[in-house]
Design the sequence.
């Protein structure tokens, strides 16, 4: 691994190009192809000039490992007033002296975006950070998405619930083995949630943070709100934040302000762009995005090109020191792995481990009497739950006493999207509901946007190749089709695959035996 | 941008009545591509190790371009001359730099014509 950092001065037009030259020379020495070097030089050069032209000064930091060049261009302000506009080709706020030299074409950020594989900006009046990755080995225009769920096969009781419930049909039972197909799983948590015997878990070690030295030299702990809600114990909030500050000198923060910033930024995006694809899908859940990348690539253009709020937050705090993050789903772990695979400054803690730790700290802490009650102000907060699966979940929890009395009103709808989801319409119910309410739109004043972030768009996921060559793949495809004809089409799942078609694939590619199908008479199987 | 299969640089210099500021033995120089423009962002995207750039830019920015993108030859327009520093640097890199007698429009027109008459 090679790395370095280069200072960039404000207004130093003649010095521009130093960072790009250094990175160029490193890349040529490690033998990267000339096309990729060119992409890197363009992107770094534009980033350097950006600092020189638009900021009070800053630096370029880079890291090169065997497959990625990672670059950060950090300046100390004054920020980018409108990122959406800045990303538009031809939009520029460069001063006249820069234009005289041939700069200020308004192509800087668009050029960076075009020449990088991953790119984002965060900007506030305190400074702007551009970060980008360039893959050094030629890459197809696809994303490999890591799978961060792991099954423990020996706990499986073969109820077949998971193979039916997995939204992307990624689970197979092969004999005694529970198998997740790595090109299909979208890290959604569904199997973790549904399996009655707890076969699935995050691919993350459960450790004891205070015993295993995890908290040493840490500066921030970031917890998503659902995790933070675990601090509400026996009707009171446990002041864990103060406890952590005193005991370990660590700052505990939640994602709430970052979630808000994302909301505002997406609003901004909507009002500043002439968007073709509406509605905009706000990037709140990485699993949904991975699902889109996997099964709905045509919807990628609908996703607002912004950073997930948890990434934006981690990225912010990691500048102050080591960060501990508690991921709430495997898709967050997967995203972090894609973006920070080389970082020693980000540690992940399994939520289960955190909960144990909180329980223990509460036990040890003398703060028990300082616990705070919940606010009463949201007394009439109303929640709508729709679709039989979510409603069933709600009623199950209510029956078990897992819903607090603070929640005063719930609306439960059997149909997805409420009554607008009644079966005799094919329009999307939320759209219908909007349509009916659109006469009643109201203005809401927005707070000042504190942090903006924008990222490059997502790419479709690489699917599985059936064979090594196109010819072989086509043959396999024909074979699958052929084999599926011999199956009964009942999609019963007994064979361990969710549908007959999936089982045909199992037979064609993985040599599964047709014996597993209960509907094929014995003598036919023999023939 | 014009992609051509190996053009003789000397013919281009002659057709624009160019004054050679840097470059030796250019009789044997060939280029593969021509790009005209004044915006750095366009130049860096479109230029490569075999491109002749036609441009008004005659200042330090030009130097950075030559360095970073291995641009072999530059044609300045309207008889403009860069700093000695720039010329020295081009010489040092064994690049070619010349200044056309004509403005951008005329320069490009002449070069264009030259290629369209070349079979
Ligand atoms: S849900 Fe799946 S993994 Fe869990 S017990 Fe049932 S078949 Fe096995
Ligand atoms: S995490 Fe979701 S997509 Fe992945 S195997 Fe489990 S249910 Fe399927």
Sequence:
């Amino acid at each position: 691994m090679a790395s370095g950092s280069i200072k960039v001065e404000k207004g130093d037009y003649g010095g521009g190009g130093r960072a790009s030259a250094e990175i160029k020379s490193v890349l040529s020495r490690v033998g990267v192809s000339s096309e990729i070097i060119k992409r890197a030089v363009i992107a770094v050069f534009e980033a350097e000039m950006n600092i020189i032209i638009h900021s009070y000064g800053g630096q370029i930091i880079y890291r090169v490992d065997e497959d990625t060049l990672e670059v950060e261009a950090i300046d100390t302000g004054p920020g980018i007033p409108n990122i959406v506009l800045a990303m538009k080709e031809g939009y520029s706020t460069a001063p006249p002296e820069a234009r005289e030299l041939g700069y200020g074409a308004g192509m800087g950020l668009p050029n960076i975006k075009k020449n990088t594989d991953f790119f984002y900006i965060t900007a506030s009046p305190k400074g702007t950070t551009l970060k980008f990755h360039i893959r050094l080995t030629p890459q197809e225009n696809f994303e490999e998405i890591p799978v961060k769920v792991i099954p423990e096969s020996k706990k499986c009781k073969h109820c077949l619930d998971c193979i039916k419930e997995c939204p992307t049909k990624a689970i197979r039972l092969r004999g005694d083995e529970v198998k997740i197909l790595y090109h299909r799983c979208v890290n959604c948590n569904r199997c973790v949630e549904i399996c009655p015997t707890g076969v699935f878990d995050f691919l993350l070690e459960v450790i004891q943070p205070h015993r295993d030295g995890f908290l040493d030299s840490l500066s921030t702990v970031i917890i998503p709100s659902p995790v933070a809600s675990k601090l509400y114990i026996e009707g009171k909030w446990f002041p864990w934040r103060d406890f952590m500050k005193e005991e370990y000198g660590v700052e505990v923060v939640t994602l709430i302000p970052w979630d808000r910033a994302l909301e505002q930024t997406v609003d901004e995006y909507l009002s500043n762009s002439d968007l073709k694809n509406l509605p905009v899908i706000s990037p709140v859940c990485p699993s949904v995005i991975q699902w889109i990348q996997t099964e709905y690539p045509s919807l990628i253009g609908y996703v607002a090109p912004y950073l997930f709020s948890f990434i934006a937050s981690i990225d912010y705090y990691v500048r102050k020191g080591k960060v501990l993050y508690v991921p709430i789903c495997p898709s967050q772990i997967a995203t972090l792995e894609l973006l920070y695979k080389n970082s020693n400054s980000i540690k992940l803690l399994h939520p289960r481990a955190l909960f144990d730790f909180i329980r223990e700290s509460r036990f040890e802490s003398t703060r028990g009497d300082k616990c705070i009650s919940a606010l009463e102000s949201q007394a009439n907060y109303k929640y709508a739950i729709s679709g039989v699966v979510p409603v069933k979940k709600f009623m199950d929890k209510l029956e078990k006493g897992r819903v607090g009395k603070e929640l005063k009103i719930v609306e439960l709808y059997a149909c997805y999207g409420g009554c607008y989801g009644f079966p005799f319409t094919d329009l999307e119910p939320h759209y219908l509901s909007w349509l009916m309410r659109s006469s009643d739109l109201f203005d809401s004043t927005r707070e000042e946007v504190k942090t903006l972030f924008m990222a490059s768009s997502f790419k479709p996921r690489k699917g599985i190749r059936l064979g090594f060559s196109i010819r072989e793949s086509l043959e396999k495809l024909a074979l699958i089709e052929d084999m599926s004809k011999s199956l009964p089409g009942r999609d019963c799942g007994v064979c361990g695959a969710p549908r007959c078609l999936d089982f045909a694939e199992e037979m064609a590619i993985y040599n599964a035996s047709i014996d597993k199908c209960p509907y094929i008479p014995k003598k036919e199987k023999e023939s | 941008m014009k992609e051509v299969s190996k053009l003789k640089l000397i013919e281009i210099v002659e057709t624009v009545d160019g004054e050679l500021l840097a470059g030796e033995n250019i009789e044997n120089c060939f280029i593969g591509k021509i790009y005209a423009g004044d915006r750095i962002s366009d130049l860096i995207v479109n230029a490569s190790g075999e491109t002749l750039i036609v441009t008004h830019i005659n200042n330090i920015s030009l130097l950075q371009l030559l360095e970073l993108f291995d641009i072999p030859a530059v044609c300045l327009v309207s008889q403009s001359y860069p700093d000695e520093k720039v010329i020295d640097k081009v010489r040092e890199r064994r690049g070619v730099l010349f200044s056309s007698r004509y403005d951008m429009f005329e320069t490009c027109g002449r070069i264009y014509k030259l290629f369209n008459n070349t079979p």
In short: The domain at 2-135 of chain A is CATH 3.30.565.10 (Heat Shock Protein 90). Chain A has three domains: 2-135, 221-450, 485-526. Confidence is low (pLDDT under 50) at residues 440-451 of chain A. The pocket of iron/sulfur cluster (ligand 2) is lined by residues A 149, 166-168, 170-171, 180, 185-191 (CB under 6 Å).
